[in-house]
Amino acid sequence: IALIVGWLVWNYYMQSPWTRDGKVRAELVNITPQVSGRIVALSVADNQFVKKGTPLFTLDDTPWHIARLAAQAELTRAQVALEKARHEAARRHNLPASLISGEDMDSANISVKTAQAGVDAAQASLDNAQWQITQTRVTAPEDGWITNLSTRVGDYASAGKPVFALVESQSFYVVGYFEE
User: Fold this and answer.
1) Do 139 and 91 form a contact (C-beta atoms < 8 A)?
2) Which residues contact 148 (CB under 8 A, 6 or more apart)?
3) Dihedral pair phi/psi, residue 129, rounded to 5°
4) C-alpha 53, offset from chain centre
5) What are the pLDDT digits (tens) for 74-114?
6) What is the predicted pLDDT for the residue at 101?
7) CA geometry: angle 174, 178, 180, nearest 5 deg
């Protein structure tokens, strides 16, 4: 009987390992804005569970709206300059070859290409300003719990610097250190 009890204890020990040296871990996601600005709305509290896409905080978008207006004005100016360059090039193309030099024709064609590049650059600036406006509303990238929240409305959030963290709900795992 002692042999059977000994075998059962040894079998239980070998089949059911345990340790006192283990840790529960989880992945943290730093919540970082893409643009800088003053926080005007904070929609979460510390240790609150949030779903992916939940609004976390909102930055003041006034500077980005001003940038968009400036970019729209620049795009309009560039489009007018392109239209003027095209009109002048078309007039020169309609002139007889004896009245206009090849250099003047090349200059008119280059002016059109330069004006087109100005339109493209202005459109890129407008697209960037519109994208920046969308980045003033920060949402949860994953399901999880808000942690390390010491931010308040009125604080300044800098682009690329974490404001607080989110503990991913699907990232928990246990690390155990077993003796052999």
Assistant:
1) no
2) 46, 164, 165
3) -65, -40
4) 13
5) 999 999 999 999 998 888 787 777 777 777 777 888 999 99
6) 74
7) 155
- Residue 10 exposure: Cα atoms within 13 Å on the Cβ side: 6
Tell me, what's the pLDDT at 91? 82
> What are the structure tokens assigned to 166, written together?
């989110």
Confidence at residue 4, expressed as pLDDT on a 0 to 100 scale? 87
Cβ contacts of 23 within 8 Å, gap of 6 or more: 174, 175, 176
Distance CA 88, CA 117 (A): 17
Q: Which of 128, 170, 167, 171 is nearest to 28 (CA)?
A: 167
Strands 164-168 and 144-147, sheet pairing = antiparallel
DSSP state of 148: S
Is the full-model pTM beyond 0.85?
A: no
Which letter, b or e, does each residue of 79-110 get, where b requires 16 or more Cβ atoms within 10 Å of its Cβ?
bebbeebeeebeebeeeeeeeeeeeeeeebee
Distance CA 37, CA 133 (A): 11
